[in-house]
Specification:
Layout lengths: L1 H26 L9 E8 L9 E6 L4 E3 L2 H6 L7 E7 L2 E6 L4 E6 L5 E6 L1 E2 L2 E2 L2 E7 L2 E6 L3 E6 L4 E7 L4 E7 L2 E6 L12 E6 L4 E7 L4 E6 L4 E6 L9 E6 L4 E7 L3 E6 L2 E6 L2 E6 L4 E4 L12 E7 L4 E6 L6 E8 L4 E9 L1 E8 L1
Antiparallel strand pairs: 1-2, 1-30, 2-3, 4-5, 5-6, 6-7, 8-9, 10-11, 11-12, 12-13, 14-15, 15-16, 16-17, 18-19, 19-20, 20-21, 22-23, 23-24, 24-25, 26-27, 27-28, 28-29
Length: 354
């Protein structure tokens, strides 16, 4: 009898131990592994009215580049003037300005899922840039609208009227900030406003006056909105305006030569002249006029992209805007890691995780 009781007691203790271990395992915090890049796409703008926009792919695993990637996967080209591309979920959205389309493809295979037509009674809207928020894609178009696309059904739900010839957009404090350039009013009829759209109601709340011909819009980690304006290319200089997204008040505006801004934490990089300007966003001062530290020569710097996983800066080189351009990869120390030839006017890099 004692033996039976002893065995039962031993079994009971063992069960308690297993339950305790199991309980401890359940309470262990979940640790998300950092993303790993498999490669990246390069959207090549192509020559204006040349119908040669294209997509390249750079494979990080074997350091190879494949140009004409979209055409190989779909048996047709992208169209005229590739302007922007972003991955959201499992899909990539490619904005083709001259062809008035947004091509939606599988982000992994680049197989076309749907081509959205951006025309109004047969007249092209000229789509420019795309951003995302809560299963909605927002596409600015030169006809003075921002389209709202449902990312599940891939249908355009509505158009929000903004200012003239809107360009880039950014999101802060549940608001969409849209740069109204008025660029088609060159040389003397530019816009100088930022449209603020409430993302809950999808209604324009107000317009904020900034420097002439705003183009780039980016937000900092603390919710400030940075706007680069091009001026009139003659008497009115380019400028940088900073808006507090909590109050929508302009904090400062100053003459500024940098364009094509990308943000990395509390610092920003701008295309400036033939190099890359390094900017401190905490104190709003230029840290370096040219981050490139190894005398690498870039013929015509066109756009900047930042890989926050591998901590690398990519500069695209448009060359003479007619031949195939190059892509340069720099470390944060400003030294060249590698470079390769892409398509005509490489502009946007879209990073792909494994």
């Amino acid at each position: 009898m004692k033996t039976i009781n002893y065995n039962l007691k031993t079994l009971f203790i063992a069960v308690l131990a297993v339950l305790a271990i199991s309980s401890c395992k359940k309470d262990e915090p979940y640790v998300e592994l950092p993303p790993v890049r498999s490669g990246f796409y390069i959207l090549n703008e192509g020559g204006f009215m040349s119908n040669n926009a294209s997509l390249s792919y750079y494979n990080l695993e074997n350091s190879s580049v494949l140009n004409g990637f979209f055409a190989q996967k779909n048996g047709r080209g992208l169209g005229d003037t590739g302007n922007d591309a972003q991955i959201y979920g499992s899909k990539m959205y490619i904005v083709i300005n001259g062809s008035n389309t947004v091509e939606v493809v599988n982000a992994k295979t680049v197989q076309s899922i749907k081509k959205l037509d951006f025309k109004n009674n047969g007249v092209g809207r000229q789509p420019r840039y795309v951003v995302f928020n809560k299963n909605k894609a927002f596409v600015s178009s030169f006809d003075g609208t921002v389209a709202v696309i449902d990312t599940a059904s891939l249908t355009i739900e509505k158009y929000i009227t903004v200012g003239r010839n809107p360009e880039q957009m950014a999101i802060a404090n549940n608001k969409l900030y849209v740069a109204n350039s008025g660029g088609l009013g060159y040389p003397n009829n530019f816009d100088k406003t930022i449209s603020v759209i409430d993302l809950s109601t999808l209604v324009e709340l107000k317009k904020i006056d900034v420097a002439l011909n705003p183009f780039g819009v980016t937000t900092s980690t603390d919710g400030r909105v940075y706007i680069t304006s091009k001026g009139d290319y003659d008497k009115v200089n380019a400028a940088l305006t900073i808006i507090d997204s909590k109050t929508d008040l302009v904090k400062s505006t100053k003459e500024f030569s940098g364009t094509r801004m990308v943000i990395n934490g509390d610092r920003a990089d701008f295309v400036a002249g033939k190099g890359v300007m390094l900017y401190d966003m905490v104190n709003d001062v230029v840290l370096k006029n040219n981050l490139i530290s190894d005398n690498t020569v870039i013929t015509e710097p066109y756009s900047l992209n930042y890989d926050d996983v591998n901590k690398q800066i990519f500069v695209t080189d448009a060359k003479n805007y007619a031949i195939n351009g190059e892509v340069f990869c720099f470390g944060e120390d400003g030294k060249l890691r590698y470079k390769f030839t892409a398509g005509v006017i490489p502009t946007k890099i879209i990073f792909l995780n494994k």
